[in-house]
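[step 3/7] fold_predict: job queued, chain A
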Amino acid sequence: MTKFSLNRSSLAVYLLTCAGFITSGASAGYGVVQATGAFQLPGGTTTTYVSEVGDLSNPRIQGYNFGSVNTLTGQSLLLQNFYFEDYAYNGGSGNNWLDGSSTATLSVSIVGEGYISSKTFALKQTSTNGNNRTWDMATGTNTNFATGLASGTYSIGFDVSYTYNIWTGSQSVGSASTGESTGTFTILPVPAPGAFALLGLAGFIGIRRRST
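[step 4/7] structure written:
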């Protein structure tokens, strides 16, 4: 994944490219440049970056298949980290800005096989570049979303909400979000105990046949 920050001119071009993903508040002087998860997919050992917004070379979370998890062999679906970049500036319908009091929160929902879960993870500010702030996870890195799930197919949704400051004669706090993007993953069935017994018996018979 490439981390980047944009000046206003290049940001305008970028926002037009990503218009379908940028919050409606972009015309009011605030919005999102990047919202990207760093995942270790089932059976993998490297990091795969999947984005809600930003990094056009990355696949999109919306509609993404995160793969099939074989919990019997110790596989997992790890969220290693989540990277977010937003901006706010004086323009549009009001004076908007980010500061140390601004917040960002990642929400993750998992639904399937009668299971419903919603988790929230605080993001922390890591750098400032002009009107832009970059963030990553303050807590929850290396979360395994497959833990404790029964076999079946699940949807997994990601949404980042954030706050910014507003001045229209008096100061207030505004809030916005990326909107939820949803992918899927599957937990593979674990063989019943009887299946292991049959496999063991078949192996024993095979050994006996070879030895006679």
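[step 5/7] annotate
The longest strand covers residues 152-167.
Residues 8-211 form one domain.
exit 0
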